[in-house]
Amino acid sequence: MARLVRLSMKDRLVQELRKKILTGKLEPKSRVIEQEICETYGVSRTVVREALVVLELQGLLVATPYTGTVVASISRREVEGLLLPLRVQTEQFALGEAFDALDSDYFDEAENLVRLMDRAVLDRDIDAFNEADIAFHGLIVDAAQSDTVRSVWDAIDPRIRMHFALQTGRSGALPTFVEDHRELLRVFRTGNKEESLKALGRHIIETNKPYLDYLN
């Protein structure tokens, strides 16, 4: 039995299951059965449920009423044809709505998130990088102060997380586009709305291209 030590039991279980998902040992759309995990790792059902919630928030699992929890799936075709275009449209609209009101508070928070990306690269922490990256783009969404934009973003957020986790987890490489985020902020600061919208669209598409081959 692959028992886990008592210390940080939930976190260790999250790491174990996450690794299995990203390496394909837990296949997309396969069912995740709590009792089997309890028996495999010698942990309580409470610990298993807490770990599954974390993985669901990371976009790696999907819980559906009456049918249970399954491993999430996303294909290159879905990312290229749907997710990235949706992101571009949503974020460009949000930026367009918020652009004239971007203030020092916005830029301070955005720059702090870029610093967190820098730290994640130094620490070789892919998860922390992805969280800061998603937060950076979520900040653009929040700046629009639109319930509609936020609802669209909330709907695609789990798929974005799944996409980021799979592409970086399978590549085994840390993202190298911290400077792209700094460049975005530099363009935003010029006050040129049209160029900023174009730069944001390019950023979303171009920074994801190197990783698409890691998706099925």
UniProtKB/TrEMBL annotation:
Keywords of this entry: DNA-binding, Transcription, Transcription regulation
InterPro entries with a match to the protein in the record: GntR_C, TF_FadR/GntR_C, Tscrpt_reg_HTH_GntR, WH-like_DNA-bd_sf, WH_DNA-bd_sf
Keyword Transferase: no
PANTHER family attached to this UniProt entry: GNTR FAMILY REGULATORY PROTEIN (PTHR43537:SF45), TRANSCRIPTIONAL REGULATOR, GNTR FAMILY (PTHR43537)
UniProt-listed PROSITE patterns: HTH_GNTR
Gene3D superfamilies referenced in this protein's UniProt entry, alphabetically: GntR ligand-binding domain-like, Winged helix-like DNA-binding domain superfamily/Winged helix DNA-binding domain
SMART domains reported for this sequence: FCD (SM00895), HTH_GNTR (SM00345)
Superkingdom: Bacteria
Organism expressing this protein natively: Actinotignum schaalii FB123-CNA-2
Domain HTH gntR-type intervals: 7-74
A molecular function GO annotation: DNA-binding transcription factor activity
Protein's name according to its UniProt entry: HTH gntR-type domain-containing protein
CDD domains: WHTH_GntR
